[in-house]
Amino acid sequence: MNAALAIGAGAIVIGRVGDDAAAAAVRADLVPIEHRLAVDDELPTGTYVELADGGVHADRGANAALALDDVLPLAAWGVLLSGYVDLPVLEHVDARWRAFVCTPTTTAIPDAANVVFANDDEAARLEIGEREIIVVTHGADGATVNGRRVPPSGDSETGAGDRFAGRFLREL
Questions:
Q1: Which of 77, 143, 166, 170 has its CA 20 to 30 A from that of 33?
Q2: Does the reported pTM lie above 0.90?
Q3: Concatenated DSSP letters for the chain?
């Protein structure tokens, strides 16, 4: 959602939410953005908690039941897929840019991703392989894009990496 809000006009958020107050809050935040949110009558909207020690807890909730039928067909200039989505979306979309944002729970990067965003820890832990664009973020120290340094954005709030990925993709 943070990436879509950073992209702005033309972004589409696709996901699955519960039939609950959290879903209403998500929809309210997405008012300026097109969204296709399937509603799950049994599972709650997912949550993400960042702990003071830097640890995170993600409960995918209804998004764990997201299916390709909720996503496809999808044709776009670029698709930015969260590492919290465990579906082969990038393999089935018609898009020039198929970007993947790694997360603390990512175990593998989709082969179809031609753009990868990872922080230092994720880049060290994961096999990124050959991609058209590899972006490694370094927190307050900025990022490296295909080996070239990019100055910091000044955004240090929760979701800064997603917003950076959205702005970066928008500029391609």
A1: 143
A2: no
A3: -HHHHHH-TT-EEEEEEESSHHHHHHHHHTTTSEEEEEEESSSPEEEEEE-TTS-EEEEEEGGGG--HHHH-S-EEEEEEEETT--S--TTT-EEEEEEEE--TT-----TT-SEEEEEHHHHHHS---S-SEEEEE-GGG-EEETTEEE---S--STTHHHHHHHHHHHH-
Token pair in block for residue 159: 């979701």
pLDDT tens digits for range 43-95: 999 987 878 887 777 788 998 899 999 999 888 889 989 888 888 999 999 99
| C-beta neighbour count of 28 within 10 angstroms | 8
Distance between CA atoms of 21 and 104, rounded to whole angstroms? 27
User: Could you give the CA distance from residue 63 to residue 13 in angstroms, rounded to a whole number?
Assistant: 12
How crowded is residue 38: how many other Cβ atoms within 10 Å of its Cβ?
16
| Closest by Cα among 39, 2, 1, 11 to 170 | 11
The C-alpha atoms of residue 122 and residue 55 are separated, in whole angstroms, by: 14
Is the distance from CB of 1 to CB of 29 less than 8 angstroms? yes
CA distance 15 to 1: 10
